[in-house]
Amino acid sequence: MTASAQTTDERIQTYLSQLNTALAGIATPEKDEILREIRAHILDSIAASPDPGGAADRVLRLLGSPEELAERYNTECLLTRASRSFSPWLLLRTSWRLARLGMIGTLAFLLGLLGYSLALALTIALLLKPFVPGVGMWAGQGHLNVGANSNMAGTHEVLGQWFVPVIALIAFAAAIGTTSALRLLMRKRPRNPAYQVSQTPV
Fold first, then answer.
1. Radius of gyration (C-alpha) of the chain in whole angstroms
2. How is residue 30 annotated by DSSP?
3. 143-148 and 135-140 as β-strands: parallel, antiparallel, unpaired?
């Protein structure tokens, strides 16, 4: 092995070692697969180039720092988990991470925030109904609202005894609809950051 080849190999090993550390949050079998994939991509790129040292520089630059690449894989793993989950917390956390990456993520986060906030607010109204007088769906003075009405003049309660079942149904629909929409958005989003990198000529 020439000195130049040894230096290139050491750089690759250092990069993969740093990537291994940065991928600490990912399960070992999955992490090992990622490391094998990245190693194969680097070595294939070098083997196809007449200038191995230059090819190594270019492919490592395209991959980004180990921390950046690990962040993309962590996001990928969260996307995979969230797209199969019914946990509002996991879906919101994943959409918040996506919001930092682009418009689709921002829309997903806003959808999740609004949908789950509506479901939560309606659920709180249901829980307060037996204990707080005046909780209901009130119409009048050009608006419609759900909750306690401190100023009843010019307003009337719309649902009466149907308040609990109707609001429970709306809250449930808001939660399930938001969950389904977020899962669909996360399934439709392009994934596999290493594949995208590997398509870039080096």
1. 26
2. H
3. antiparallel
Burial 135-174 (b: 16+ CB within 10 A, else e): bbbbebeeeeebbebeeeeebeeeeeeebeebbeebbeeb
Mean pLDDT value across residues 164-184: 94
- What does pTM read for this prediction? 0.69
> Do 23 and 70 meet the contact criterion of CB atoms below 8 Å apart?
yes
Written as one letter, the residue type at 178 is: T
pLDDT at 179 over 90: yes
* SS3 at position 201: coil
List all residues 6 or more positions away from 43 whose beta carbon is below 8 Å from its beta carbon.
12
Give the model confidence (pLDDT) of 18-58 as tens digits: 999 999 878 888 899 989 999 988 888 888 777 766 778 88
175 Cβ contact partners less than 8 Å away, ≥ 6 residues apart: 88, 115, 116, 119
Q: Which of 21, 80, 11 is nearest to 46 (CA)?
A: 11
16-45 CB burial, b ≥16 within 10 A, e <16? beebbebbeebeeeebeebeeebeebbbeb
- Is the Cα torsion angle 143, 148, 153, 154 positive or negative in sign? positive
* CA–CA dist 178, 175 (Å, integer): 5
